[in-house]
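Each record in this resource describes a single protein on a pair of labelled lines. The shape at a given residue is found from the number at the same position. The record below illustrates this layout:

***
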Amino acid sequence: MAYLIVGGGLAGISLAENFLEKKERVVLVDAHDQPSSTKVATGVANPIVFKRLNKSWRVDELAPFALDFYSKMDEKLGIQSLSSVTIDKWIKSDDYRTFWNTRAQEPEYKPYLNPVDGDLGRVLQAFAVDCPVLMEAYREHLQSTGSFRNDSFDLDHLKSIDQQLEYNGEVYDSVVFCEGAYAVYNPLWNWLPFKVAKGDWIVIETEYELCDTILNNVVNTIPLGNRRYKLSSTFEWETMSWEPSKNAVKELTKAFEERFNVPYKIVEHASGLRPAASDRRPYLGVHPRIPKHFIFNGFGSKGVLLAPFFADQLTKHILKGAPLNQEVDIKRHLRRFQAQHP
């Protein structure tokens, strides 16, 4: 069996590795010079949603799976992309302080929250993945085994022949589209209710040591060493522009300056498009009318946490017919497809 994977970001990487672990052949197609959210992703996995102080969806199950996956990838590739991080939330109101401290005493939240100390509440069990490092190393690995095609995918070149698929002269059993935000342009999948979210981050440089943990004040101040800090990140909805935003810089620096009154200069600025789903659950499954065409997408800002677990689930679904979780199966939007394609 051979499987074609379209898209070489975190979703495509996770899926390719799951197929390879199960001794299946894969070919991953992705244009190296094409903008990608994984190339600029901050990669922080926060187990807590700050607004309502809830645990991130299924974090008790997803986090251990992700940590095991990235640890094995680092060992396989000879890199160090995975790190544990500590997140401190700036507590600015008495009501939120009380809310935080109450949550921190609940048994299911104790592993993730420390009580407020001064004006900071600490989040435990967060981790980060250096996504650009992982992406580049894995592409080199696939290229060394003949499993990577540095090219833009052309849907017109994908043909169905005798219950198999043929693409540029190679035959595959199935194709999985892991295109991130580009899925909104793909006629196979543009009926899904994507909610693309643009995110910008900047790196600032200052003469002062500001913090040695990630400090959250709406946005994250992330220490990079040598008095450099990444301010990450903003949310701008329903845009397909990859160009860095001047308004985002204002938003990021405003949040930073509210906490730190120090001179600084901006030394880097990048933006990416997060492929978010309207209901904040990933999109997995086979096309409603075209067999052997699958999608693996819609991870938004939670890709680092979600992708490894659901890559394993989709791989087992494709290879063995294992059921998909109903919350992520694209069948939940079947009526939408039927309305648009009667």
